[in-house]
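INFO  loader      accepted 1 record
INFO  loader      residues=278
INFO  predictor   begin
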Amino acid sequence: MVEESRAEPINRRALAGIAVLASLIAMVALGLAAFAEPQKAQKVQNIVLVHGAFADASSWSGVITRLQKAGYRVRAVQLALDSFEEDVARTRNVLAAQPGPTLLVGHSFGGAIITEAGSSAPNVVGLVYESAFAPDQGESMKAIVTRGPAPPGARAFRPDKAGGLWLDVDSFKEVFAADVDDDQARVMAAVQKPIASSELMSERAFGKPAWRGHPSWYLVTEQDLMLPPDAQRAFAKRMGATVQSLAASHAAMVSHPDEVAAFILRAAAGPAKMAAAQ
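INFO  predictor   done
INFO  writer      dumping tokens
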């Protein structure tokens, strides 16, 4: 009986040791899985689109239907364009709601939004810029927009008494959407969203840009009168972005939805390919 009573604690200790060892093995396995997961997680599941000044989320309509048909979950952020911080917060909220790896796409002023919002979003795996601003750390919007001569489209700027900046309705098609169908361009001019002048003239310095930590793609619109093609190429060059040019106006997502969607789809496949090559 004495021997049996002594053996029992030994067995219990042995079992406890086995349990601890099993737990350690499980933790190591989970750790290895967690280490490997970022590689698997690079496959894009979601695409978030961010519009710019003088437009709204509906400007992505043609692109959205094409991306959805390709099997992606797509969201287009609706910006207010009167507070940069609030628009960044709106974008981050949409990003946080996406279940899995996400490609972030910005047009025009939306490029500044994704540059800021994407830097703190853990599910963002790549960024796409379409004729968009791509600020670097320490720069301000005022410094960017006042660098060099004003673009041709600036002649159509119309400030209002509330501090908003609009495009002249009669000049809208010419400077913003020259290659868009006439009827559609008139609708775009009628529903345009103004941007607060204080946003374009902001001296607030940008933080570390999202494109420094993620692969990036840039679609240059060669017939752009709002953001000069040379400026677009300069943004793309310093980002080290994958670049494609398109003979289109500033509103390429409306006038050339096939080409814009194809470029975004190419980018969506990019992070997975990069992970597979590592």
